[in-house]
Specification:
The complex is a heterodimer of chains A (483) and B (221).
Chain A: H1 2-20, H2 26-51, E1 54-56, E2 61-63, H3 65-94, H4 100-122, H5 126-144, H6 150-185, H7 195-200, H8 207-225, H9 233-240, H10 243-272, H11 275-296, H12 302-323, H13 325-357, H14 368-371, H15 373-386, H16 393-408, H17 413-435, H18 451-465, H19 469-482
Antiparallel strand pairs in A: 1-2
Chain B: H1 2-27, H2 31-56, H3 59-87, H4 99-123, H5 132-148, H6 152-174, H7 179-207
The chains are: A mainly alpha (483), B mainly alpha (221).
Chain lengths: 483, 221
């Protein structure tokens, strides 16, 4: 029932906003629907905590601690982004960058995107997971090109082609997985694509086919995670789309894609052992983290800067999942949560900062503290948090990942430290002049909604200072599931 | 047994046709021709799915064959034709560089695909198992086409051809995916083509051309 609501609200929202999205109250409606989704997700969480994993609707949907935590996170960031987007999009309308009709498209696609991500998280069917990921891509293609400028069209095209090709690889991987499963489970009954069934027989699946399948699945879904060398779409899509879209792309979509990779990894590990998939994830993760960190230096656009920071962090999380084991998985899950919260809050402030300055170029953004202390401090604190400074929670998760890496794969530590150090210097040196200094920019026409920024940062801070035992137990349960 | 043998031979013939069309796509310049080739690819897929369905006696495969006929032989080519007519691009000639080298690269890809498909072919029990290599080759050749072409429409046709290859792989190795999934994939594909249709107009409005050379301003600076 709760599950139906979690998936139903965004779908209802898509239809409603497709009709009413250009009205004055559309933004409020968007917030209301997102709130309803969050409440439904919270009920789902309660139910899973009380009654354990859930398997419903002819076993097509499956909820366990691993995905329910991502569902809650997705619904939460979905709501805060909707709250942020209300004044943000009004200001964009005021500046003449969007028309009421485009806003209708924006609101409708926003809900469709949320719905597709939630479906991808909740489904038990590997084929449906693919369909939902593709739907999420398609809805965001329209969001990225919302402004219809040359640059945004180019970004959306690149996004579509790269992710389309990537996700086609994932489909081939899924076909191979189905092929291997069919040998064991049989064609009848259509259970051969259900993750729970696959998980039960994973030890009997043909290793050679699964190995091949994993390569395709990793490359395919990895493209959407932003793993190097297929990360090219990510900075463009983040920089040229509207800021709320950058926030949900970075904070949520990357997580969902990584979730798909990890679900596949669990299956493949059961068949061919943990060594090969783990090593592949570690290699791709390290390469991505280091590359992301070095590219940070060359950026002049504020949203591109933080997009590369997302690439770097996704690399770190992928590396941690590759390490495997309860501690590294725990740290990876924690880092996923914290990165989502922090990065979306950074995009919120970066969006308003560039609106206030009238440009996304960092040399044009100066003296944010003078324009609005909340935007200035929000950006500063967010940057400090994402750079892993204590007492923010990111410090804890990065520290855990580093110490585990030192113990198990010492060769990887220098690369991780280089990535972290380079990113630190890069971001800090660019953010500092934007926040301090003088500015003569006029105030914004609508007052920004910055409550989400500080709510997110407070949560990140709280998780760094004290983690409630119940939550820690939850993360541990999820980490155990991943193995 | 004779029937089965005949069907197996016919399927191999059809698979060879599919591969041939993929090579033809690599070397064609005119967009209109490419769409026709794409429709032929769909027709071959339809025929081979029918044959497999007849041989294996699976009702599900008949549905999937019908879906292929409607979507890939009729609907998609029709939409694409309408699109290029509206865009006035049907007589466009696309400059191609180095057809011989592209062809050679294609040959290497085919050999690679057959090598990769070897272990799967050994294990499969389907009547179509010998064509898995060809399916993979079609996927890789379409990929090559997407890389070497600069026109937006051509890239999309490459993308659709790649999906044809994937579909062929699914029927060759496993007698097709479950119906729900196939419907989902078909829906995604249809939506993708619609979105791209809208996109073509926007791109042309902004750049006065569908040549993707213009779409190269976003780089690291």
């Amino acid at each position: 029932m709760e599950l139906l609501l979690v998936l139903g609200f965004p779908l209802l929202g898509t239809l409603l906003l497709a009709l009413l999205g250009s009205r004055r109250f559309a933004a409020e409606l968007n917030v209301t629907i997102s709130l309803a989704t969050l409440i439904a997700a919270a009920l789902l969480v309660l139910r899973v905590i009380r009654h354990g994993p859930l398997l419903v609707w002819h076993e097509q949907f499956f909820v366990d601690p691993f995905n329910v935590f991502l569902v809650a996170l997705t619904a939460f960031v979905g709501l805060t982004t909707a709250i942020f987007s209300r004044p943000y999009m009004r200001i964009e309308e005021h500046h003449g960058r969007v028309t009421p009709n485009r806003l209708r498209l924006y609101h409708s696609m926003y809900q469709l995107f949320m719905g597709a991500m939630l479906l991808a998280l909740l489904t038990n069917n590997m084929g449906l997971l693919w369909v939902a990921m593709e739907a999420a891509t398609l809805s965001t293609v329209l969001l990225v090109s919302l402004y219809r400028t040359r640059a945004s069209l180019e970004a959306a095209w690149k996004y579509f082609i790269l992710c389309g090709v990537g996700i086609a690889q994932a489909l081939f991987g899924t076909i191979l997985l189905y092929f291997a499963a069919e040998q064991t489970l049989g064609h009848e009954g259509m259970t051969a694509l259900l993750w729970t069934h696959l998980n039960a027989v994973k030890a009997h699946l043909e290793p050679r086919v699964l190995g091949l399948a994993f390569v395709f699945l990793l490359v395919g879904y990895g493209t959407k995670v932003g793993l190097a060398p297929l990360h090219n779409w990510l900075p463009d899509a983040h920089a040229e789309g509207p800021t709320p879209v950058s926030a949900v792309l970075s904070g949520l979509l990357l997580n969902v894609a990584l979730y798909a990779v990890i679900r596949c990894k669990v299956l493949v590990e059961g068949s061919i052992g943990a060594a090969l998939p783990g090593r592949m994830l570690m290699t791709f993760g390290l390469l991505t983290a280091v590359l992301g960190a070095f590219f940070l230096w060359r950026q002049r656009d504020i949203k591109r800067l933080f997009a590369y920071s997302s690439i770097e962090h996704m690399g770190i999380v992928t590396f941690a999942f590759g390490l495997g084991g309860p501690i590294a998985n725990f740290a990876a899950l924690l880092h996923m949560t914290l990165h989502s919260l922090t990065k979306s809050s950074i995009f919120f402030t970066a969006g308003h900062a560039s609106q206030a300055a009238g440009t996304q170029r960092m040399d044009g953004i100066r003296g944010l503290l003078g324009i609005s202390p909340t935007i200035g401090w929000g950006l500063m604190l967010g940057s400090i948090a994402i750079l892993g400074m204590p007492p923010f929670g990111v410090f804890a998760s990065e520290f855990l990942i580093l110490t585990t890496a030192m113990r198990e794969h010492p060769w990887a530590t220098p690369f991780l430290l280089i990535a972290l150090g380079v990113a630190f210097a890069g971001i800090f040196s660019k953010v500092q002049p934007m926040v301090f200094g003088e500015s003569d920019a006029p105030p914004l026409p609508h007052s920004p909604a910055l409550v989400p920024v500080f709510v997110h940062l407070a949560m990140v801070l709280a998780l760094g200072l004290y983690m409630p035992p119940a939550l820690a137990e939850w993360y541990r349960a999820a980490a155990r599931l991943i193995g | 047994m004779l029937k089965s043998h005949l069907i197996a031979q016919l399927l191999k013939l059809l698979a060879a046709g599919l591969l041939l069309i993929s090579f033809a796509m690599l070397s064609r310049r005119r967009t209109q021709r490419l769409i026709t080739l794409y429709a032929w690819q769909g027709a071959i897929l339809f025929l081979s799915t029918c044959l497999v369905a007849w041989d294996a006696g699976l009702t599900e495969l008949w549905y999937s064959a019908a879906l292929t006929l409607i979507l890939k032989v009729v609907a998609m080519p029709w939409i694409l034709h309408r699109l290029i007519q509206r865009l006035g691009a049907q007589w466009d000639n696309e400059p191609l560089v180095n057809i011989p080298i592209t062809m050679l690269a294609g040959l290497v890809l085919v050999i690679f695909a057959f090598g990769l498909a070897q272990p799967i072919t050994m294990m499969a029990t389907t009547i179509t198992r010998h064509t898995i290599g060809i399916a993979l080759a079609v996927i890789l050749l379409s990929f090559l086409m997407m890389i070497t072409r600069r026109r937006a429409i051509t890239q999309v046709i490459g993308f659709l051809a790649m999906e044809n290859g994937l579909f062929f792989a699914a029927t060759s190795a496993t007698y097709g995916m479950p119906m729900v999934i196939e419907l989902g994939i078909a829906l995604d594909l249809l939506v993708a083509v619609f979105i791209l249709g809208i996109f073509f107009f926007q791109i042309r409005e902004q750049f006065d051309s569908l040549d993707l050379h213009h779409l190269e301003s976003l780089r690291e600076d």
